[in-house]
């Protein structure tokens, strides 16, 4: 350990593992340390099932749950956008060779007391029960506009310059009602609140394009999920880092982060010291450099049936936009099952999550739980949400945010790319990655 590194990464949460891979690919000498014996940090996958029950202080599961080791339950499940940044990174870096993905079967939105499939193309818009007859036409025209827009070609803007108009103005141009705006912003563009309405429309146009491009890749929904759960992802990126020369150490306590003249200089574990120019880490390693900005409630639900009204989908996402239930933040529901090798045959794992707004968080997720039907076992956790208090440029310590309530990876990717930009002074260059990693594993 007594060497000098360009960067030391602390923690093996998914964000830290992605950063470690990106930094290694960019030619940096990286040391990656975690105090835990396992990958994943707070975003780990728990196996066997008995361990999950133990973690939440519940009596051990009986034999009706099938084989204990067939379970692999994510503490913070998230789906990947098929055409999103994380999948691009996985493909570009060759990490996909270690992983197998399955398409998520359905994408739904809660509206007026029931769930409906999210319409993403003209055909679905015309068939959707979310929209009245005249609204269907308006929404169809809106989707055609989105599909045709090319950012740098004014001829495709049709008198609606998406760089100049706010999103609210663009909605108004197409005469879309509040209901349509609601599911478009939250279930298609995946915004968590309505601040986006006052921002340039181009930002939302990009997000809707990402959704429809992702959907076009596999058809059933825009989302993918790895077989055996998300725990496979950090390990994939760890392998990537190792291929590019990164060094990994698990089960290694960090006793001190060493500073010199206000700048990071290294880390100490026992009597060993590793020198470095930069540190990348999760909030738990630097409690004095983060602030709590909120809380997230998550409820893991084990069920022996799919979610009602989803055509018996074996995996799905449901978004409950905040206005539909009189809240400030959306509620997210995700479902995976035995088809992803994360549960015993015939079993399903649902997750309901949201940003905490009251002193009684469990009541806040009730609209999500009510959609699930009978629940055999549930595990509730409330986590603090931390953000760094500095950008890291002075101290050279770059800290990730905690994981939010969303059930997709888009916000996670934005955080990782932002940290990389702050730490290196440049955007990550996807073209630097060897497209084929050769036969190093043969």
From TrEMBL:
Similarity annotation: Belongs to the Rab GDI family.
Compartments, record wording: Cytoplasm
Free-text function comment from the UniProt entry: Regulates the GDP/GTP exchange reaction of most RAB proteins by inhibiting the dissociation of GDP from them, and the subsequent binding of GTP.
Biological process terms in GO annotation: protein transport; small GTPase-mediated signal transduction; vesicle-mediated transport
Main subcellular location of this protein, as a coarse class: cytoplasm
Record-linked SUPFAM superfamilies: FAD/NAD(P)-binding domain
Keywords: Cytoplasm, GTPase activation
Organism: Liposcelis bostrychophila
A Pfam short name: GDI
Lineage, opening ranks: Eukaryota, Metazoa, Ecdysozoa, Arthropoda, Hexapoda
Single Gene Ontology MF annotation: Rab GDP-dissociation inhibitor activity
Protein name from the UniProt record: Rab GDP dissociation inhibitor
GO cellular-component term (any): cytoplasm
Signal peptide positions on this chain: none
């Amino acid at each position: 350990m007594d060497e000098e590194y360009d960067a030391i990464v602390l923690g093996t949460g998914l964000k830290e593992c992605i950063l470690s891979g990106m930094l290694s690919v960019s030619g940096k000498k990286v040391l990656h340390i975690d105090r835990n014996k396992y990958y994943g940090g707070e975003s780990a996958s728990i196996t066997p099932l008995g361990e999950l029950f133990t973690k939440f202080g519940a009596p051990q599961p009986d034999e009706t749950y099938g084989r204990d080791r067939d379970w692999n339950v994510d503490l913070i499940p998230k789906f990947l956008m098929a055409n999103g940044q994380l999948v691009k990174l996985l493909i570009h870096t060759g990490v996909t060779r270690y992983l197998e993905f399955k398409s998520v079967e359905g994408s739904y939105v809660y509206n007026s007391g029931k769930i409906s499939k999210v319409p993403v193309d003209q055909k679905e818009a015309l068939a959707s029960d979310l929209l009245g007859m005249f609204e269907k036409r308006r929404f169809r025209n809106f989707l055609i506009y989105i599909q045709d827009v090319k950012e740098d070609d004014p001829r495709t803007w049709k008198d609606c310059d998406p760089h100049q108009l706010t999103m609210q103005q663009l909605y108004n141009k197409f005469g879309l009602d509040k209901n349509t705006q609601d599911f478009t912003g939250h279930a298609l563009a995946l915004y968590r609140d309505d601040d986006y309405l006052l921002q340039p429309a181009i930002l939302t146009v990009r997000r809707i394009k990402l959704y429809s491009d992702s959907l076009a890749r596999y058809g059933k929904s825009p989302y993918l999920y790895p077989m055996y759960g998300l725990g496979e992802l950090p390990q994939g990126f760890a392998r990537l880092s190792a291929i590019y020369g990164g060094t990994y150490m698990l089960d290694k306590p960090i006793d001190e982060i060493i500073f010199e003249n206000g700048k990071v200089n290294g880390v100490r574990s026992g009597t060993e010291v590793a020198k470095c120019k930069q540190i990348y880490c999760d909030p738990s390693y630097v409690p004095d450099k983060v602030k709590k900005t909120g809380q997230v409630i998550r409820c893991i639900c084990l069920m022996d049936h799919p979610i009602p009204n989803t055509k018996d989908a074996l995996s799905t996402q449901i978004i409950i936009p905040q206005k539909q239930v009189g809240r400030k933040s959306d509620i997210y529901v995700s479902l995976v099952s035995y088809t992803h090798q994360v549960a015993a045959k015939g079993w399903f794992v649902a997750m309901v999550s949201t940003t905490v707004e009251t002193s009684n968080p469990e009541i806040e997720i009730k609209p999500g739980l009510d959609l699930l039907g009978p629940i055999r076992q549930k595990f509730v956790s409330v986590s603090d949400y931390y953000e760094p208090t500095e950008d890291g440029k002075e101290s050279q310590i770059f800290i990730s945010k905690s994981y939010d309530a969303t059930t997709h990876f888009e916000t996670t990717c934005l955080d990782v790319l932002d940290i990389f930009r702050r730490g290196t002074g440049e955007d990550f260059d996807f073209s630097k990655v060897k497209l084929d990693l050769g036969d190093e594993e043969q």
